[in-house]
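Fig. S4 source data, part A: sequence.
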Amino acid sequence: MPIEYQTHFPVMLPQVLEALAPQDGGLYVDATFGNGGYTEALLNAADCCVIALDRDPNVLPRVKELQALYGKRLDFRAGRFGDFANLIYEQIDGAVFDIGVSSMQLDKSERGFSFAKDAPLDMRMSQSGQTAADLVNTLPEKELADLIYQYGEERKSRQIAAKIAAARKLKKIETTKELAEIIYTVLHRTPKAIDPATRTFQALRIAVNDELSELQNGLSGATARLKPQGRLAVVDFHSLEDRIVKNYFKNNTGKARHVSRYAAAPQEQNDAIFKECSKVILPSEEELRMNSRSRSAKLRFAVKQ
């Protein structure tokens, strides 16, 4: 099993470590443990402790592997990062979120996150609750179209939903390949272009796992637990996530949200939570060459007052 994990690379690791600036004696939270890349790097970077969170029960072998190496410095708590404030009761020096599906989940075709291989249409990170197949086969056509448009930003959502509605009358849609083939009747594949099924699959995954609400709740929960000068870093992969992160940091950093262009200088907000937030940070050219999954990644971080 260790060999399997070594094939995965945490996205923008040097930049994340620089953003968090781990210190000896510090306490940090890896809110999206996944394959443990950020957790292990934090534990190696300083004589600190890490609390790792994940809703996916399949991460447990990797957790045990790292606990064997780092002992009590690593504490794992099973759960959604949207429940951050309930899972983490300590005051912490920093937290990192790597939003979206993990490499481990993508690479296991039976999880149904990817259309690269045929598999049951599942997509549940926690492996509990309703599946993507449940949504595809039961949502009214208009609701399905709205979901694909809102969460996938797919311009042809209505046509795709109509094709899905017609197909499911004949046979229940059960696999990733079946769904992808339906999408291809609306959007045709072209060489070297992003697969046209990508946006619909993204939309279903976000809906199944309630990812956007999880992100908003997770950011609020982590902020509440940060000590003064604590650092919050977020890596995200698409515009819906990034908009939430960008606006959250901007609206809680020490400048007024709306400032008259005639004002002499921005006025400080009395209720500002962060004293500074970064501009967007992108992967290096070297990382883009080595790790194709980093191509859409964006990192933002903020420092608490």
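Fig. S4 source data, part B ends here. The radius of gyration is 21 Å.
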